[in-house]
Amino acid sequence: MHKHRRLEPDAGPVLGDVPRRERQWTFMVYLAGDNNLEFHGHQDLLQMKQVGSNDELAIVAQLDTYSPGPARRYYITAEGSLEDDDVGADLGEINTGDPAELMRFAVWAMETYPARHYALVIWNHGTGWKEDDIYKLMSDAGLLVSQTSLVSSRHEQAVNTLMQEAQEPQGVKALFKPSLETILARGIAYDDTARDFLDNAQLKQAIGCSLAITGVDRFDLLGFDACLMNMVEVVYQVRDAAKMIVGSQEVEPAAGWPYDRILTALKARPRMGADELAAVIVDRYMSSYGPLENLTQSALQVSRVQELATSIDALCDVALSRQQESELAIYRAARRAQFFADPDYKDLYDFCRLITEHAGPYSDLSRRAEGVMALLEPSGPDSFVLASAQQGYRMRRAYGVSIYFPQRALSPFYRRLDFASNSLWDDLLLRLVGV
User: Fold this and answer.
1) Per CATH, which fold does 25-303 belong to?
2) What angle do CA 321, 327, 331 make, to 5 degrees?
3) 262 vs 107, 259, 275, 279, 306, CA distance in Å?
4) What is the pLDDT of residues 182-233, one digit of tens each?
5) Can you list the residues of the chain whose pLDDT is less than 50?
6) Best exposed site among 75, 209, 219, 373 by fewest CB in 10 Å?
7) What is the rounded CA–CA span in Å between residue 276 and residue 283?
8) Cβ contact 134:199 at 8 Å
9) Is the distance from CB of 174 to CB of 206 less than 8 angstroms?
10) Global pTM?
11) What does residue 180 show for φ and ψ, rounded to 5 degrees?
12) Alpha-carbon span 82 to 123, nearest angstrom
């Protein structure tokens, strides 16, 4: 039982209040800790508390745990105990894999702690775009659903959209009704109690709706304190939701981001922009671990992702139109390219670099590959990869962003992604590896 709870700032005017100066940043962390990362969620909250909020920086968080008890929201200060920072929201047991919960948290945080800039960090396990383990999930639950029936019926049980539900008078019931039958993808924010997670489509919708409800154009920074998330496919899926994306191509250590170091820098320079904060996160993350860790972290400029997709299309167009002369070079590049904990995830720059080696310097395929590489070199404000760092022998050819190139066959779920729908990449994969 809490002895007392902190009142939420900006909850309303009080006689005698002195108007505050405009807050620069609200830094929001959605901690999906209903799994084996619960301990690290508590530790990260304590790291945030070492810094604490002030008039120019609001640090807010929501933690759901596997241990009994309701999820809690916090306005993090540098005084008192973490228990004192609990704002007393009556959340009960939640499902962090329900997109409505992410939307509710983001809307609450932005409306309660308005600021010029917003950073939203999604904290949990991550698996990039992939969704193949849906069969294991269904088998574990005793549900036997064929691949064909799953794909064809995925929208048959759809409910009202998040926006429609959010505008209802009570607005508190589940805005989606998550079930194993409606899981479309592996993704992020795993909840072991609910046996659910956010797929890529739900992530896009939850974030988009939170922005629409609050009238915010886009997040200045969207962070993935999770594994394997910095992929072309993931960035493209949320291309309208953020200016910068920060995350890892590889598996992250369980301790994740060093929030004390990151927020200390932001608190010292609250007027830094999203690009500077993104670079700070990359730098502080890399410096927080010892030299024996295999690490990656990168900051990606979302506004450049469409240009990158167009350049990838140009590469695919040549490869598809001249398949016989291109196929061997692409196969060899894919086989040798830098890969990560999931071997189907290849570093895009390294893949294209190897294409130029195998196709020859004067071929059309090489020129198209060089065009992709030019957008990925972290050389200035026009690069898709604003900042990138890697550490460890196994990560030496990681340049900041991955792309899916399956070893065996194209996943039947891949073509649901926006990137697959709007580009030729899935057509190239289908031609080369089949389904």
Assistant:
1) Rossmann fold (3.40.50)
2) 145
3) 23, 5, 14, 10, 29
4) 333 344 444 445 555 567 778 888 899 999 999 999 999 999 998 889 999 9
5) 1-7, 12-19, 132-139, 141, 143-192
6) 373
7) 11
8) no
9) no
10) 0.82
11) -65, -30
12) 19
For residue 238, the model assigns a pLDDT of 93
Task: Kindly report, residue by residue over 330-339, the tens digit of the pLDDT.
Answer: 999 999 999 9
Q: For strand 72-75 and strand 57-65, is the pairing parallel, antiparallel, or unpaired?
A: antiparallel
Record the tokens describing residue 255, joined without a space.
Answer: 């301790």
Say how many CA atoms lie within 13 Å of 238 toward its Cβ. Answer: 36
Amino acid of residue 394: R
> Residues 250, 227: contact at Cβ < 8 Å?
yes
Q: What digits encode the pLDDT tens for the residues 29-74?
A: 998 755 566 677 788 899 999 999 999 999 999 987 676 677 889 9
Choose among 207, 201, 245: nearest CA to 416: 201
Q: Where are the domains of the chain?
A: 25-303, 306-378+402-433
Q: Which residues contact 346 (CB under 8 A, 6 or more apart)?
A: 334, 337, 338, 339, 402, 403, 404, 405
Where do the H-state alpha helices sit in 288-379?
A: 305-321, 323-336, 348-359, 364-376
Q: What per-residue string of b and e applies to 185-200 under the rule 16 or more CB within 10 Å gives b?
A: bbbbbbbbbbbbbbbb
Determine the residue type at 370: E
Burial 37-47 (b: 16+ CB within 10 A, else e): bbebbbebbeb
**Tokens 């994969």 belong to residue:** 429
Residue 39 sits at the vertex; the CA angle it makes with 183 and 90, to the nearest 5 degrees, is 65
Candidates 348, 318, 355; CA nearest to 333 is 355
Quick one: pLDDT at residue 325?
A: 84
